[in-house]
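Thread amino acids onto this structure.
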């Protein structure tokens, strides 16, 4: 039997091409996707990786063979695919492996209206079908196969985002954007066109081999060039997008990183100004400042597990206006509850341009605590090391323990979360405290147990 467990993850398909999957499997995935979603039509987009056009076209053939009419939108960011799925009301598939190296590729799938397809919402069924067909042969095409047509959605995507954030009152801003040779180089010029922004582009050439640096802005080494360019040009702000441009990371006018928690709080305050009393979702690793700012602005914060499927589920359940994660994923009710780094970037630009001060001063009110950042430890026994940490804190009167997602221990002046990686032998530690010394002390104590 064919076993696809190594490439079908919790939220998407991802693996090395052609070693782990190829166009023949992509075609089967297309057929299975159309069958499981019962789609009459499907929209498909792809990133700039060398293998993306062939894989996406194979998927299209598979979907059409099951009777679905296919709309190919070609090169796009992941949030542009979500826009197409939402505005056209079609299930969608995006071919990307985000910031993974060039030999990787993957599929992010959604139902109509950009509703996510994950293990519990169809992905496991799709995998089972593909495994069965790969083993026994694909079913015969339906009597009336679907059509395959092409459509340009970039301008519609840009207009939709620009309609959600008004930058007309902004003062002129100099903005450095590092696209990392990813899809930001495709979307930024159209979204920013005509806005009061002096754009300084970096690595806008679409190149899925990532010749300049990995397109993962959360890794400090990947924003060094952006930081230097912001300082060199005297820019007001720097933005870095990941490979498929659904995440956006921000640096201030000094070239200093702005934490995604501070961005979450800033955007939450803006959304609550438009929608008083609404709910905002945040995952359990975002800063204490996020629920504080939400409450200060009359909203209701809701804490959830890490991961886009959990965020989107909670947004649907609560009707939340916005959601943010420590990983620089930002979710908007006005964007079909999907994540879009570009819309978050427009909010930050608008907030900066509506007042005279620098970005560092603007975000200071949202950056209130000392944080460790995410620290990874390679361990042989994830469960055993996590249990040892839990044992150290169990029974103490001065802490609360919960296991919503990994282990979270909270005291009056600090908290930490320790989570196992789903794909690697790692434990991920995040610590926050009211001062840097306490943060360092808690970090060192927990790491001392984890790395024993």
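Threaded sequence (452 positions):
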């Amino acid at each position: 039997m064919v076993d696809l467990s190594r490439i079908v993850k919790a939220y998407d398909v991802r693996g090395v091409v052609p070693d782990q999957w190829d166009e023949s499997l992509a075609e089967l995935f297309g057929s299975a996707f159309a069958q499981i979603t019962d789609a009459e039509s499907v929209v498909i987009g792809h990133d700039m990786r060398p293998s993306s056009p062939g894989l996406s076209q194979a998927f299209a053939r598979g979907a059409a063979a099951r009777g679905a009419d296919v709309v190919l939108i070609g090169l796009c960011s992941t949030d542009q695919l979500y826009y197409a799925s939402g505005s056209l009301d079609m299930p969608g598939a995006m071919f990307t492996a985000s910031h993974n190296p060039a030999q990787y590729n993957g599929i992010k799938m959604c139902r109509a209206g950009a509703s996510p397809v994950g293990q519990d919402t169809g992905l496991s069924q799709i995998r089972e079908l593909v495994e069965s067909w790969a083993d026994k042969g694909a079913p015969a095409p339906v009597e009336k196969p679907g059509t395959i047509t092409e459509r340009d959605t970039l301008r519609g995507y840009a207009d939709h985002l620009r309609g959600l954030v008004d930058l007309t009152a902004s003062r002129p801003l100099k903005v450095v954007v590092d696209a990392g040779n990813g899809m930001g180089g495709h979307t930024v010029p159209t979204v920013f066109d005509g806005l009061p922004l002096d754009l300084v582009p970096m690595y806008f050439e679409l190149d899925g081999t990532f010749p300049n640096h990995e397109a993962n802005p959360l890794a400090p080494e990947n924003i060094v060039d952006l930081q230097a360019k912001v300082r060199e040009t005297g820019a007001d702000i720097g933005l870095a997008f990941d490979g498929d441009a659904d995440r956006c990371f921000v640096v201030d006018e000094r070239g200093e990183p702005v934490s995604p928690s501070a961005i979450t709080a800033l955007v939450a305050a803006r959304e609550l100004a438009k929608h008083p009393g609404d709910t905002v979702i945040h995952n359990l690793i975002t800063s204490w400042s996020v629920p504080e700012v939400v409450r200060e602005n009359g909203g209701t914060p809701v804490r959830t597990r890490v991961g886009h499927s959990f965020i989107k589920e909670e947004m649907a359940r609560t009707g939340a206006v916005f959601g943010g994660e420590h990983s620089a994923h930002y979710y908007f009710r006005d964007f079909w509850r999907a994540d879009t780094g570009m819309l978050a970037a427009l909010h930050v630009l608008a907030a900066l341009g509506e007042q005279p001060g620098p970005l560092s001063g603007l975000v200071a009110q949202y950056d209130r605590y000392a944080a460790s950042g995410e620290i990874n430890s390679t361990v042989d026994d994830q469960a055993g090391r996590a249990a040892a940490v839990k044992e150290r804190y169990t029974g103490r009167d001065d802490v609360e323990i919960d296991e919503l997602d990994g282990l979270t221990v909270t005291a009056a002046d600090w908290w930490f979360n320790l989570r196992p990686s789903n794909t690697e032998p790692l434990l991920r530690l995040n610590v926050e405290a009211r001062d840097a010394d306490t943060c360092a002390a808690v970090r060192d104590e927990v790491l001392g147990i984890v790395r024993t």
